[in-house]
Specification:
Shape: globular
Distance between the termini: 15 Å
Structural class: alpha/beta
Number of strands: 6
Oligomer: single chain
Radius of gyration: 14 Å
Order of helices and strands: EHEHEEHEHE
């Protein structure tokens, strides 16, 4: 069993599914004070699943939920990130390095995203296997 005060989420494409379930559980419980920061990666803006639901949570709980997108092929007026998830993106949009177990990182997405983008960069930021979970 893991407990955390802060959860960083990294989702790719349909990997948003378990993340949305967790977000719904957290933000439907008035006693839950968990803070969440999410990076959601997709190919194009049209590929962003459940965007209205995610943005509704972000708008309702701006003090506890921060949402950031990255696209492989962004439109010209895109205000979020572009390209693959990297260390700098994680530093800016997730929680800082491990803090004694207060933070957990949850990941769900294509295996290459987890293996080549998420795990090496989390390791470079000081996170260990005790700090992350991949669905």
């Amino acid at each position: 069993t893991r407990q955390a005060e802060r959860i960083g989420m990294i989702a790719g494409g349909t990997g948003i599914t378990p993340m949305l379930q967790i977000l719904t559980a957290i933000f439907s419980d008035p006693n839950d004070k968990t803070e969440v920061r999410m990076i959601f990666a997709n190919q194009t803006e049209d590929d962003i699943l459940v965007r209205p639901e995610l943005e509704a949570i972000a708008n309702k709980h701006p003090d506890r939920f921060q949402l950031h997108y990255t696209l492989d092929r962004p439109p010209a007026d895109w205000k979020y990130s572009s390209g693959f998830i990297n260390k700098e993106m994680m530093e800016k949009h997730l929680f800082p390095k491990p803090d004694g177990g207060r933070t957990q990182i949850f990941m769900c997405g294509p295996p290459p995203m987890i293996k080549f983008a998420c795990l090496p960069n989390l390791g470079a930021l000081g996170f260990t296997e005790d700090d992350w979970f991949s669905f």
